[in-house]
């Protein structure tokens, strides 16, 4: 070995030795993890199920309940204490668990704030603190945890705005902020988190529009914005997004019409809820090409025109709720022709179409409705003629409402 190589080797050795000593003393030692976990325990003041009873110095912390460590370095990678009834605050010492990848303390009674020390968890992938009593603002600094894939803060009492910097997290797949006390608007910056699949801000005080940027996310599959104060029209791109499975925008103040252009398609959509908004126009017939649709919920809007006959193609539809709109009978028809059209929906359980502007007779083919039908509500419409006796063949029907109509004759004994 040449002198030069020997020199380099010894230099490297010294460096390695130096950083080991440095690490042992200060940062990377597993002692820090023990200390951090004990501090976490000490800020918990009620442990009804004694899950932390074996968190003691006498035992290796990697064997403590809820803890997983990396094999090689024996550092804490996962802290999972779900559904354990723990009450207390989250110690800022958690920020010292520098190898932590998963923090899951869902469904406990943690209160207080999510401290800025969390920003030091650079390896953190999952932050799940849903269903607690945490409050204060969502720390903006969380965006420094650039490996975050899942953030679930839902079901707490977080307030303030949705930090726009969370839109810079490159691997974020799931963001659940629902059922808090958040205000402000949805930052268009979330258009930058192209990996986002699930976006939930339901039951807050969010106002403004759904940013177009959000509707352009390539893999968005769940959009939960119900129970807020959102306004404006629903971005058109939402209605041609093959990745979408669930759209829940009910209880807002969305207005305008749904796009009616042909060539729009939601092939994977299973649930569409736009209930309780101010939407106008017709029910778009392309929805009948969403053959996986199980729930189509559009009640209490201002929809006009007839129910598209093509909805009868929805083989998997279980709930169809269209009540409280201004829907009318097919032009030129004297009967409720949608009843004929929907008889092929063999999974239909609940059909609510009351409080609309239909007029006409109930067709006899009502008896051809799927045996799965349990609820039929056509109340507060201008129904005429008699109740067909065929209705008696719907053996599973347990709720029938025809109130507020101009029906005449007897109630058929078949009922
Ligand atoms: C901590 O590190 C030491 C030295 O590497 C090792 O002996 C010990 O098992 C590690 N784990 C714990 C939990 O102390
Ligand atoms: C602590 O409790 C858990 C669950 O009861 C058990 O799996 C684990 O082995 C215990 N650890 C120690 C060090 O006793
Ligand atoms: C929450 O935890 C409690 C036990 O503390 C359990 O009874 C309850 O089922 C859990 N709730 C959910 C939604 O997991
Ligand atoms: C751990 O975190 C606490 C609070 O954030 C801090 O005071 C302490 O110095 C940190 N370091 C160690 C080694 O515990
Ligand atoms: C939630 O936080 C607000 C302050 O932001 C407070 O006024 C309210 O009482 C809290 N609600 C609950 C249920 O703790
Ligand atoms: C994120 O999106 C916003 C608004 O859409 C844009 O102005 C900004 O430049 C984007 N930032 C990054 C880092 O891509
Ligand atoms: C979208 O999902 C596909 C399939 O899971 C994946 O290959 C792709 O990388 C994702 N796109 C982004 C931007 O994350
Ligand atoms: C809908 O999206 C498809 C691709 O996913 C595209 O080819 C088509 O042009 C779009 N239709 C409309 C009307 O924008
Ligand atoms: C439904 O899909 C078929 C086949 O792709 C297409 O021809 C038809 O125009 C679509 N219907 C609507 C209303 O978009
Ligand atoms: C129901 O399906 C059958 C068989 O596919 C078809 O012949 C009939 O026209 C359909 N009825 C309606 C009302 O769409
Ligand atoms: C539908 O109902 C009508 C009237 O009750 C009946 O004549 C017809 O055979 C039924 N069609 C099917 C496919 O059951």
TrEMBL record:
Segments forming domain Leucine-rich repeat-containing N-terminal plant-type: 32-70
Family annotation (Gene3D superfamilies): Ribonuclease Inhibitor (3.80.10.10)
The keyword Hydrolase is assigned to this record: no
Top-level division of the source organism's lineage: Eukaryota
InterPro entries associated with the record: Leu-rich_rpt (IPR001611), LRR_dom_sf (IPR032675), LRR_N_plant-typ (IPR013210), LRR_R13L4/SHOC2-like (IPR055414), StomDev_PlantInt_Reg (IPR052941)
Signal peptide start and end residues: 1-27
RNA-binding found in the keyword field: no
Bilayer-spanning residue ranges: none
Cellular location(s): Membrane
GO cellular component, one term: membrane
Pfam families in the cross-refs: LRR_1, LRR_14, LRRNT_2
Keywords: ATP-binding, Glycoprotein, Leucine-rich repeat, Membrane, Nucleotide-binding, Receptor, Repeat, Signal, Transmembrane, Transmembrane helix
UniProt-recorded name of the protein: Uncharacterized protein
Organism: Camellia sinensis var. sinensis (China tea)
Lineage: Eukaryota, Viridiplantae, Streptophyta, Embryophyta, Tracheophyta
